[in-house]
Amino acid sequence: TKSYVGVDNAPKQYVSRQRRRPYAFNVMVVGESGLGKTTFINTLFHSVLKEQKSRPLESTKTVEINAKSYDLTESGVHLRLSVIDTPGFGDRMNRYEDLNPIIEYIDTQNQNYLQQEQNRNPRPYFKDSRVHLLLYFISPTGKRIKDLDIFSLSKLSGKVNIIPVIAKSDTLTADEKIVFKNAIMKRLEKEDIKIYPYNYCDDRASISHLETHIPFAVVGCNTLVEVNGKRIRGRAHRWGIIDVENEQHSDFIHLRELIMSVTKSRNLNDLVISTNDIHYNSFRTTYLQQNDT
Ligand code: GDP
């Protein structure tokens, strides 16, 4: 059987190097409070992961930055998944400043990696805490993307792999979702906001089946409901049940395919590679230029 998270697909060399250390995958979730970020992460990773440890990393009076790590072993490869949550984002009067600790966190992890390179540590022993994926939760207004969301996405663009998702999409009708998605894509293009894999893919044909779903309209749910004798992960509404894994109801399975599929060429490893080759590289170039004494 194929591995669920896609560790199987990592190039052999990478895997053998990573046998010594867990293969690190770090995902950050950003978006206003109450948009279902915590719920969604649990939905996305529920079947494979058991919480190992939780440690508050950085705490400011405003936005907290928390990382939770989960350990997983598949085909002899150890995966350590860290989920970096940012509770409190967008809660204050001056919400725009809430982005500062998030950007600082991303930069600090890049600096830590650079430090290890400069110390000439053997690469297999590097600790990789760089953010490999940032899931950005857009408020489901249905009409216009909020200024805070555009501001944040612009600042984060080019620093990390961003996958934008429409939060709590069960609050929109099917037609509203289409209109909203088009409006978001137009705006992202206008503001030159770079998203994954759209702006980082040489081979657009390989993602064409996914392009129509970007930004992914998601629904999070941690409870199981019974439908026709089967227990499914879903949200019960007055008009019926939203099945998170039904593609008529949400884009969950497409997003999961993009992040974790092993049958397609994209998976966690692709996100790690583009973090290293694109984002970290450009961080390093700028950083070294600025700190050249
Ligand atoms: P966070 O602050 O972004 O981490 O949000 P939470 O995951 O704590 O969710 C906030 C509330 O929204 C909870 O009551 C959830 O049950 C509810 N919720 C989470 N996801 C969804 C969703 O996709 N649709 C709807 N309608 N409610 C949701």
From TrEMBL:
Residues 21-290 form the Septin-type G domain. The keyword Ribonucleoprotein does not apply. The lineage of its organism: Eukaryota, Fungi, Fungi incertae sedis, Cryptomycota, Cryptomycota incertae sedis. It comes from Rozella allomycis (strain CSF55). Keywords: Coiled coil, GTP-binding, Nucleotide-binding. It comes from the Eukaryota. The keyword Transmembrane helix does not apply. Belongs to the TRAFAC class TrmE-Era-EngA-EngB-Septin-like GTPase superfamily. Septin GTPase family. This is Septin domain-containing protein. One of its GO terms (molecular function) is GTP binding. GO terms for cellular component: cell cortex; septin cytoskeleton.
